[in-house]
Design brief:
With 598 residues, the protein is an alpha+beta fold. It is 26% helix and 33% strand.
Length: 598
């Protein structure tokens, strides 16, 4: 145990976390140059393309320090996005220290601060590292000042490195050995291990990643998961190298894996405690909580014949992503589908892209929404995440929606534009911090529903990419809501119904009607697209009909001949409208989701 170091790398998105992990792996000789590839811990194509870590990974690095001692460095990689904050907190609970990575050109950003607080909550040793010092725009002295002022860390102990160029990697490795304390715990105590991740292996079932705090576990042991109250027999234990490496046992202080015939990832819970059935730990490890979805949307197959394929694909996908929640749903316009719950908007995008790429599914996704809370006149409280279940307005006593507290870090020159955007989205209680000259931190309390569609895209656009955004869920607050229905030719499109704030109902109605007008093809008759709240029409767009020039052959003669032909045409159009059905293309549903400036 004295020679084990468990650490993690935390940073804002795109500050070089995966690149630094790559260099540490190369420096410790874990991979030969000919086998090396960038983002070696990121296994999905999607992660490599977007440059983000979606699924965290772990690796044990053998390292011989300058003093000749051999150490085992367990790097627990973490996802970088706010949607996965709980997974990050469990990974940090498995460590004794962290490398806090800051970009030399960007400085301290919103998630840098959020991740620092997470590390402090777990009382971890924090090693500040300034990365990308080779960039022409690098301002090392300015970033040191920010680290001291904003983060309250001693800038004298900052390590300078460039993960891309391999500068300063030796200093980082030595700092891990020297500054991060070895793990505590005893192999003689009852087994107590924290599950911080799990992934599905199609041959072995669920591979559980865990940090052992006390005791030891080996193949043949009967283990109990303390939250799920399930019992399993351990088939294999080991540590993570670039591939899984079996060991006779894993004991106190170690980070490793165990395979115990657990059928799906959903049968384990991130943050659960593993103990022995015969000699259990007295109490589970602290910090466990159920992860609840905050964003909801419905998924439908493009063709009704593909429903079973989509059901099978979601079942397979759920084996690897326990955070996805779904149940059957149906729509008059789109047929059979599924109502899904996601951790956030990035999680929603990832699920959508992976279903399309990895499972070859063509899907239509409805407008994302949040979970609202209604107190009815009879005192009953109901939560609604699907507009189809919106209660009767006459029975509602109180309407509430979830609020978040945003933290937006921007250069000073963009304050006006960002303030305007936040106020448009019903932001309240604005607070300003000036962490360093030329940089502003703005905090707003905002409804979650206003952020989930295109807020982040708009923020990046108006700040020319310099704005960084982080948020935390606050509570439910009283509001005023309406259900907006979209009618096409008098027929209600339930897939496009949405719950909106009273003040923004007309704006949303106009926006959806205009988008649909551009996407729905012309027919032989006029098509009315309307936004309705209850029985009241609040917006309308009309698609004009194809018209044949029936009077073209009348050159001259009495005007009554032309009038007669036009009357006949009008009567035909009227009859056609009575029986005509409008085919709505898939692109129409996609168009409604697009941001205003696309």
């Amino acid at each position: 145990m004295p020679n084990i170091r468990n650490f993690s790398i935390i940073a804002h998105i795109d500050h070089g976390k995966s690149t630094l992990a790559d260099r540490l792996i190369q420096w410790t000789g874990m991979v030969e140059d000919r086998q090396f590839r960038d983002q070696i811990l990121d296994t999905m194509d999607l992660e490599r393309e977007r440059g983000i870590t979606i699924k965290s990974n772990t690796i044990s690095l053998p390292y011989t320090a300058d003093d000749g001692q051999e150490y085992e460095l367990n790097l627990i990689d973490t996802p970088g996005h706010v949607d996965f904050t709980y997974e990050v907190s469990r990974a940090l609970a498995s460590c004794e220290g962290v490398l806090l990575l800051v970009d030399a050109s960007q400085g301290v950003e919103a998630q840098t601060v959020a991740n620092l607080y997470l590390a402090m909550e777990h009382d971890l040793t924090i090693i500040p590292v300034i990365n990308k010092i080779d960039l022409p725009a690098a301002d090392v002295d300015g970033v040191k000042e920010q680290i001291e002022r904003e983060l309250g860390l001693d800038s004298d102990h900052v390590i300078l490195c460039s993960a891309k160029e391999g500068i300063g990697i030796d200093e980082v490795l030595e700092a891990i050995v020297a500054r991060i304390p070895p793990p505590k715990g005893s192999a003689q105590e009852p087994l107590s291990g924290l599950i911080f991740d799990a992934h599905y292996d199609s041959f072995r079932g669920t591979v559980v990643s865990c940090r052992i705090f006390d005791g030891q576990v080996k193949p043949g042991d009967i283990i109990r998961l303390m939250y799920n109250h399930t019992v399993h027999k351990v088939e294999e234990t080991g540590v993570f190298r670039l591939t899984r490496e079996p060991r006779k046992e894993i004991s106190a202080g170690m980070v490793g894996y165990l395979i115990a015939g657990i059928k799906t990832v959903g049968d384990t819970r991130i943050g659960d405690t593993v103990t022995l059935e015969a000699r259990p730990a007295a109490t589970p490890l602290p910090g466990f909580k159920e992860v609840k979805p905050v964003v909801f949307a419905s998924i439908y197959p493009v063709g009704n014949d593909d429903y079973q394929d989509l059901a099978d694909s979601l079942e397979k996908y759920k084996l690897n992503d326990a955070a996805l929640v779904y149940q059957k749903d149906s729509s008059a316009a789109l047929g059979q589908g599924f109502r899904c719950g996601f951790l956030g908007l990035l999680h929603l995008e990832i699920v959508q892209e992976r279903l399309e790429r990895e499972y070859n599914q063509s899907i239509i996704m409805t407008v994302p929404g949040v979970r609202y809370r209604f107190t009815l006149v009879d005192g009953k409280v109901v939560t609604v995440d699907n507009p189809l279940f919106y209660p009767d307005p006459s029975s509602i006593k109180l309407e509430e929606e979830p609020f978040i507290r945003t933290s937006i870090l921007i250069p000073e020159r963009f304050v006006g534009a960002v303030m305007k955007l936040c106020l448009e989205r019903r932001g309240v209680n604005s607070r300003f911090n000036y962490p360093s000259p030329g940089r502003v931190e703005i905090n707003f309390d905002m409804p979650l529903a206003e952020v989930i569609i295109d807020f982040y895209d708009r923020l990046k656009t108006i700040t020319q990419g310099y704005g960084s955004f982080d948020y935390e869920l606050l509570d439910y607050r009283a509001t005023s809501l309406l259900k907006l229905d979209i009618l096409v030719n008098g027929e209600k499109l339930d897939a496009l119904s949405m719950i909106v704030h009273r003040d923004r109902a007309r704006e949303w109605g106009v926006r959806v009607c205009d988008r649909l007008k551009d996407e729905i093809p012309k027919q032989q008759f006029k098509i009315a697209i309307q936004g309705a709240v209850g029985g009241q029409i609040i917006s309308r767009s009309t698609i004009s009909a194809f018209r044949k020039d029936v009077t073209a052959k009348c050159y001259g003669g009495d005007i009554t001949r032309k009038r007669k032909l036009l009357e006949k045409q009008r009567a035909g159009k009227k009859r056609m409208k009575m029986v005509g059905a409008v085919q709505i293309p898939q692109s129409a549903f996609v168009a409604v989701l697009k941001t205003e400036n696309e």
